[in-house]
Write a structure and sequence with these properties.
alpha/beta, 2 domains, GMP Synthetase, Chain A, domain 3
């Protein structure tokens, strides 16, 4: 076990006892302790912890008694950042069911996979997403849909910064199986006794792998609590803290750091449905935000605001995040303006966010950080499993209380994703990295073929599978190419079917892809080729194409 980092550990214990209770119990405790404390601020509207808990229970009762949700059932949560996302998440937990949080940018063709994979009968969704959910009625197991209008929870005084999804008035849906959120809450049905414990499955975020087939990461209340409590202690949060919520809550970093951790601490969540740098400045300044967990692309945009002043963000005591390394020059600009170092971390859906943190008082730039509470992180030679030492490059593996119990219905993936070393089971991250003489970890490359576009994971095989549905496309190979704004962006090399050459152009394929894939996922660049570089066994040499693009970017 690597212990070099202990010398630089913050002045707190290196080990934490993880609660054996459910995530919902964290909300109940905070509601009992701080009933009048603001839990949520949403475009001028305040919701106290007492109100939040009451609505969670009312919705849980509706899910159970009206829609037939039973303990262990998987319930789809498909909406943007909003009070309803928070209420919905904890209501599913309160009903002793399992939250399946899905990216709201997905379209119907993509969403269908998740509904089928989990045999989902009930979903909670934002009304602006009805075109993605509605088509699944009658062709999948989906039979109940609770529809939320974000405008129901917005207050006054912030009209100029409202996204169109929040401005939109409530739509009255009357189709069978469609239920309105406000009516579900108003029914005020009381749920049965809460029975979920630490080792019961609580949440199942999805990730993908080299096959491109999404996989549900089974997380228990205990695994999620491990990182919730860990984040609480590492970030020095108090009930008086005010957290600016800009990361998407379906993603594990936003989920843990911007929702679970503030609720555990009884502090306030300031919710933005869509990123808006001007709104972020106003909210930090007017509400005294203290903590902001974000990603590099938001920081870059935030600092590019010509009207940003040092005094506007003086209340911030912590700015942290992950997803992609923050360029050193941007980190220095942030430090000069705020006096704060951007504290980076590292984790995966399989570890429900962080396995590594940078110490807040001694962070390193473009660094994953040091292993978190009770995490045993090592570097191995991928092919042999041999453990490597300081400065040696290999695959990062982790053992810790936040590691998922496994992928849902993916026995083969589970066998291949873990390795036994000295009687300990380690999760193979697929990330290539090293650690230095002080025990700080750095990422070098990825074993998995993954594109990191503005912090979103894009799996080339999945994009290729959609491109192959286009009648003009004979072959497709997708790679990540350097992009000054997104870090990486998606490029597709395409071989056309006979008869389509000269009849279709790159822009037409991009437009088609935009209609069939999420906005972060579809190719921004298309290049037609007559042939691809291939191995002797007929496999496309995607690395060769990617290297060509990197060389182009450098010239």
């Amino acid at each position: 076990m690597v212990t070099l980092h202990y010398e630089f550990w913050p002045k707190i214990t290196k080990s934490l006892i993880v609660p054996s209770t459910s995530l919902y119990d964290n909300l109940k405790v905070s509601a009992n302790r701080y009933p009048d404390q603001d839990a949520i601020f949403y475009y001028g509207n305040k919701i106290t912890y007492e109100q939040l808990d009451a609505e969670v229970n009312a919705l849980a009762g509706y899910l159970e008694h009206k829609l037939g949700v039973r303990p262990g059932d998987k319930v789809l949560l498909f909406m943007q950042n909003s009070p309803q996302f928070v209420i919905g998440y904890y209501a599913i937990l309160r009903a002793n069911a399992v939250v399946v949080p899905i990216n709201p940018m997905l379209v119907a063709d993509e969403l269908e996979f998740y509904v089928r994979d989990c045999e989902i009968h009930t979903a909670l969704a934002g009304q602006e997403l009805i075109d993605s959910v509605g088509p699944l009625f009658g062709k999948t197991s989906l039979e109940n849909l609770v529809i939320a209008a974000y405008s129901d929870y917005a207050g006054d005084g912030f009209e100029e910064m409202l996204p169109k999804e929040v401005e939109a008035p409530r739509i009255n849906f009357t189709k069978p199986g469609h239920f309105l959120w406000n009516q579900a809450i108003a029914a005020d049905l009381t749920p049965s006794e809460r029975t979920a414990k630490g080792d019961d499955i609580a949440c199942m975020p999805y990730t993908s792998g080299t096959t491109g087939l999404p996989k549900g990461c089974m997380h228990t209340n205990r695994t999620v609590n491990a990182n919730t409590v860990g984040a609480y202690h590492w970030s020095s949060t108090t009930p008086n803290a005010v957290h600016l919520m800009t990361l998407p809550l379906f993603h594990v970093t936003g989920m843990v750091h911007s929702m679970h951790m503030p609720i555990f601490s009884g502090s306030t969540m300031v919710i933005l449905t869509r990123w808006n740098r001007n709104a972020a400045v106003e909210l930090i300044k007017n509400l005294g935000c203290t903590h902001w967990v974000t990603i590099a692309t938001m920081i870059v945009d935030f600092l590019a605001n010509p009207n940003l002043k040092k005094e506007d963000i003086a209340t911030l005591t912590s700015i942290s995040g992950g997803g992609a390394a923050l360029p050193e020059a941007v980190g220095e600009k942030l430090f000069n303006l705020s006096g704060l170092r951007f504290v980076e971390g590292y984790g995966l859906s399989e570890t429900i966010a962080q396995t590594h943190f940078n110490p807040p008082d001694r962070p390193k730039m473009q660094c994953l950080g040091i292993p978190s509470f009770d995490v045993d992180a090592r570097v191995i030679e991928p092919a042999t499993g041999k453990e490597l030492g300081v400065g040696e490059v290999g695959e990062i593996i982790v053992n810790g209380p936040q590691v998922m119990v496994g992928y849902y219905n993916r026995d083969d993936e589970n066998r291949n994703s873990f390795i036994d070393i000295e009687g300990k089971m380690f999760f193979r991250t697929g990330d290539i990295g090293r650690y230095d003489e002080e025990g700080y970890f750095f990422i070098v490359d990825r074993v998995k073929r993954m594109i990191n576009a503005s912090g979103f994971k894009v799996w080339p095989t999945e994009v290729e599978s959609y491109l192959y549905k286009h009648p003009a496309i004979q072959q497709a190979c997708v790679v990540g190419v350097p992009d000054p704004r997104r870090g990486e962006t998606v490029k597709a090399f395409v071989i056309l079917n006979e008869g389509f050459e000269g009849e279709i152009n790159e822009d037409e394929i991009i437009e088609w892809a935009k209609q069939h894939m999420a906005a972060y996922k579809y190719p921004r660049k298309i290049e037609f080729r007559k042939q691809f570089p291939m191995t002797s066994s007929g496999k496309i040499l995607w690395r060769t194409l990617q290297e060509e693009e990197k060389v182009k970017a450098q010239n």
